[in-house]
Amino acid sequence: MDQLVARAHRIGAAGLFDSEPIPSPCSSVCRMSAATPPLCEGCFRTLGEIAGWSRMDEADKRQVWLHIAQRVAETTA
């Protein structure tokens, strides 16, 4: 989980005009939690974020990464 948070902070803090595409947070642990809203236990995304990832622009993907960092912080606090 620490690696996911570090990656989220690195990606979320990067400039909007980076030439590298924003990577998917998927960790191949595809299991939804009982939290509300349900979050993937591997990447902390909602079903909507997972389903919409391939259609998101880079700015939206960066926002998802920032949400992931917030969600991890909230669940481990």
Taking all Cα atoms into account, the compactness measure Rg is 12 Å
Overall pLDDT metric: 87
Report the major sheet: none
Which word captures the global form? globular
Total number of strands: 0
- Per DSSP, the total helix count is 3
Quote the distance from N terminus to C terminus: 13 Å
Task: Please write the string of helix (H) and strand (E) elements.
Answer: HHH
Number of domains: 1
Structure class:
mainly alpha
Kindly state the percentage of residues in helix: 40-55%
Q: Which range does the strand content fall in?
A: under 5%
Q: Which stretches are low in confidence, meaning pLDDT under 50 for 5 or more residues running?
A: none
Topology at a glance:
Elements: H1 2-13, H2 47-52, H3 58-76
Helix pairs in contact: 1-3
Would you write up a description of this structure?
The protein is 48% helix and 0% strand. The protein contains three helices and no strands. It starts with a helix and ends with a helix. Helix 1 (2-13) packs antiparallel against helix 3. It has one domain. The mean pLDDT is 87. By secondary structure, it is an all-alpha fold.
Features:
77 residues, mainly alpha, 3 helices
Short description:
By secondary structure, the protein is mainly α. About 50% of the residues lie in helices and about 0% in strands. It starts with a helix and ends with a helix.
